[in-house]
Write a structure and sequence with these properties.
9 strands, 2 domains, 338 residues, TIM Barrel
Length: 338
């Protein structure tokens, strides 16, 4: 019996998360209109947008406070004029990732694990991004070009964990993820796959029944590291999406970046840890900002980071205090400060 016409039409429709990704806010004026802000008070940098385009999902923008230029979510994504500041110690490749890129799409910096740049795009362009200058054109080979990276993993029996990053791996289609996971799971010595993703936070609609089934059927252990910097990012829909992933048996961790005027104060960090825990996510790392060109206005010193951690130790149980770290080029692991 032929499939009903209505079912055929529904099966061809994009899912809600795909519709959101196809309709991102990419113009400063549109965001200003949504938030009721006067652009003359804090003009957007056209040069910054030209080098690193503006991309903001509407669900994320709706969590911003109208009329507030100091909103911590807005400050993460607004292309400010400070991005044009030329600071000698801030460079385009602060982690020297090009030195650890043996084949297209693969970074091998640490023993026992490699990172695949699964896709070149994100749902959101965070203005502090350390890969804002990364050569994605040369490092996202696509489904037909992954063989060199897969062969590299197969040839090195010490590689136990594959980290899927990007871009954002959950910005990929389910079909593509299913194929890539299948290829990795076929390598006997790969026992763990880790996703580094912002999608469940900025577009919680991405956590669909189809994605859940795809992740649950994996033979390897799956860890999902989300990137959330402020408690205001965690509304009820995000909390539900994260709790669902935890219920499915995945380990959920969070990485934050310590950002000036956004979360570099004890109340913000305490609220973030508590809200994460209510969503079944454990705080993992609190990164000092990478020294990437265009991010001088986000930079926080190591001394300030240490003071903040000391204050958190007086306010939170130990399991809710993230490790303060910095990533140094060429180091065999992240540098733990506290």
């Amino acid at each position: 019996m032929s499939k009903p016409v209505l079912s055929l039409i529904q099966s061809d429709l994009p899912e809600k998360w795909q519709q959101i990704l196809s309709d991102l806010i990419s113009e400063p004026k549109e965001l200003l209109d949504i938030l009721g802000l006067d652009g003359s008070e804090k003009p957007a940098s056209l040069a910054a947008i030209d080098s690193f385009p503006m991309k903001i999902p509407r669900p994320f923008a709706l969590r911003m406070e109208r009329g507030n230029w100091r909103d911590p979510l807005l400050l993460q994504v607004w292309p400010a004029s400070e991005e044009e500041n030329q600071v000698p110690e801030l460079v385009t490749d602060p982690l020297q990732e090009s030195s650890f890129n043996p084949v297209p799409g693969l970074l091998h910096k640490y023993h026992g694990r490699v990172l695949l740049t699964a896709v070149p795009h994100c749902a959101i362009h965070c203005r502090y991004c350390f890969r804002r200058h990364f050569d994605y054109a040369a490092n996202t080979p696509g489904k037909t070009g992954w063989q060199a990276a897969l062969d590299y993993i197969k040839a090195d029996g010490s590689i136990e964990e594959v980290i899927l990053s990007g871009g954002d791996p959950l910005a990929a289609s389910d079909k593509y993820l299913d194929w890539l996971l299948g290829e990795l799971e076929a390598v006997p010595h790969v026992t763990s796959i880790r996703f580094h993703t912002r999608l469940p936070v900025v577009v919680p609609q991405r956590v669909t029944p189809k994605l859940r089934r795809l992740l649950q059927r994996s033979r390897v252990r799956t860890t999902i590291v989300v990137h959330c910097n402020h408690g205001r990012e965690l509304d009820s829909e995000v909390t539900r999406a994260l709790s669902t992933l935890a219920t499915d048996g995945h380990t959920l961790l969070n990485q934050s970046v310590l950002l000036r005027d956004i979360n570099n104060n004890p109340p913000s960090l305490v609220e973030l840890s508590r809200r994460l825990f209510s969503a079944h996510v454990l705080p993992y790392y609190l990164h000092l900002p990478d020294r990437v060109a265009g991010t001088s206005h986000f930079q926080v010193s190591e001394e300030e980071g240490c003071r903040l951690i000391a204050e958190l130790e007086e306010l939170l149980p130990g399991y809710l205090i993230p490790r303060l770290v910095r990533e140094e080029p060429g180091a065999a692991h992240k540098t733990r400060i506290l």
